Amino acid sequence: MNKSVLMAACSVFALSFIAPGFAMGGYGGGGGGMTMGGGGIDDYSVAVSLIRQAKYDRATVYLDRALKNNPHNANILNYLGYAHRMLGDYPASLDFYQKALAINPDHKGAHEYLGELYLMMHDSASADGQLAELTRLCPDGCEEKDVLTKAIADYHAAAHAAATQTATQQ
Questions:
Q1: Do 131 and 108 contact (CB within 8 A), yes or no?
Q2: What whole-number distance in Å separates Cα of residue 152 and Cα of residue 159?
Q3: Are 107 and 74 in contact (CB under 8 A)?
Q4: Would you state the pLDDT for residue 18?
Q5: Any idea where the domains of the chain sit in the sequence?
Q6: Which of 5, 46, 83, 127 could be cross-linked to 56 through a Cys-Cys bond (beta carbons 3.0 to 4.6 Å apart)?
Q7: Distance between CA 75 and CA 37 in Å, rounded?
């Protein structure tokens, strides 16, 4: 086996352990197929791995570094929005999603995640707006649209259940 083939095989093998989901385009609608350069593990792929492990605070350190090297990368901004949302920092999350969509208005992952953020902020009308964008982007359906559709349905079901419980307690 020649040396370059062996090196490539080792890189793929290592990546499968270090950053699961990275080679597949990301985690939960976020990645968009960003690839590594230079043969090493970069800050973005480390951050994706940390996000998959729910280590959002640590992931933001790597994402911030990746953003310094790629300030107009919608995938990095989207994952910064995701990590900050998972940390409960909704204003920062909103800012990162909006920046990602300013760079790439058709970023399906950012529309999905922004819709989920709006639900967490109890703004279902804005979440519906993000679902409308995903419907435009995916007329035949896509995972991001399916996930947001379910999140909106779950949100409305929970709100209805809470209202029913409150009414029966009075």
A1: no
A2: 11
A3: yes
A4: 33
A5: 17-164
A6: 83
A7: 15
Tokens representing 37 are 């350069």
8 A C-beta contact, residue 108 and residue 138: yes
Architecture of domain 17-164: Alpha Horseshoe (1.25)
The tokens describing 116, both together, are 């989920």
Q: What gap in Å lies between CA 116 and CA 60, rounded to an integer?
A: 19
Quote the Cα angle for 129-131-107, to 5°.
Answer: 100
Q: What is the DSSP letter of 21?
A: T
- Here the tokens at position 22 are 């990275």
**Would you say 82 and 95 are in contact if contact means Cβ atoms under 8 Å apart?**
no
Stated pTM of the model: 0.75
In the block, residue with structure tokens 């996930």: 147
Q: C-alpha distances in angstroms, 4 versus 24, 32, 94?
A: 23, 27, 43
